[in-house]
Amino acid sequence: MSNEYNYYNPNPEDFDHNNIFDEQPKQEKPKKPKKKMPKWAGVVGLALVFGIVASAAFQASNVVFDRVTGNDTKTVKQSSTSGNTQLTQTASTVTSDVSQIVESAMPSIVSITNMSVQEVQNFFGQTQQEESTSLGSGIIIDQSDSELLIVTNNHVVEGADTLTVTFVDNESVEANIKGTDSARDLAVVAVPVDSIKDSTMEEISIASLGDSDELQVGEPAIAIGNALGYGQSVTTGIISATDRELDGFDGKLIQTDAAINPGNSGGALLNANGQVVGINTAKINSSVAEGMGYAIPISDASDIITSLMNQETKTKVSEEEQGYLGITGVDVSDDSSEMYNMPTGVYIREVSKGSGAEQAGLAQGNIITAINGTTVDSMSTLKEQLTYYKVGETVELTVQVAANDGSYQEQTVSVILGTASE
Predict the structure, then answer these.
(1) Is 265 a catalytic residue?
(2) Structure confidence at residue 127 (pLDDT)
(3) Catalytic-role residue among 185, 257, 331, 377
(4) The pTM is what?
């Protein structure tokens, strides 16, 4: 996902300067001249003082570094539920060597391969299907009795016919979508535990999550992800800004100058303690911008991720089995929403006679904003979600209904899916 944006850094803060007071020299009695110390003696003395101070500082920094980048490697916990994500607030410590941090965090990062089939037009205007492959990254965040749960970006898994997760030991397994939120560009995918080798389970770990609310501009940042599909790689930088807003993203973002390249999407942005503080999501591609990458703050995303984790795991059904609502709809984009004071979602233009939508009471002018708890912000998102449900299944739609005063009231409507002809 790439958009072009131009930002400039705010002016540096002014610094106060300490006032300097001059004192009048006191009158002293004349003293006998002292012999001058040889220059070489002063140099030696200064070097000795400098060496003692530097040695003490070096030892102190080593103690702090060892505490921050301990060698304890997490093992995947065997919890019975995927409960709420717990965030810990800790202070960051600056260090130039991040090898131990990376060594500890790398087992919790995965590569994700999205295989899909898309319809394209050839030179003669004929439509044909082509297989498409896209790459991204993910972060292991929890484990239930039966599934390993991984958070990533929605655009990494969107439209997937097959999802493959590759772990730190290069073992690959298929995964299914747990839940998605296109507005926040978040998704959770699930890997069945019984499909993972015992040797892989011993190598991987659950990520340690930090508190992105405590981030300060200028502190270190480490990005890990499957850059350009070459495998997991590491880039370093600083937190350039917080609370950034970009068109097309719902919510605030972290800005960093740690290189974020295609394939890094869904990977981890770490603080100096090796904790995940952001989910890498975008890079500004521009001839006038350099070193502008963005990540979703983990603290802001925590509630959404927890909701997605608790959804039922989805498996796509065949086209012949797929259920349909029986509506014709158009997108209510962010611009349209602001212009016409309407909720973002899918505006129902027409309801087919005899369809499940008609029987459920849906009408022209209603706006669909969610299906079974998953946010709907476009027709493409709605169609994507319907690929997981068969004819005859019931789905819960969140619908905004216009009132007489121009406001909208939220309703939940149960719709039994029908066939395409209905």
Answers:
(1) yes
(2) 67
(3) 185
(4) 0.71
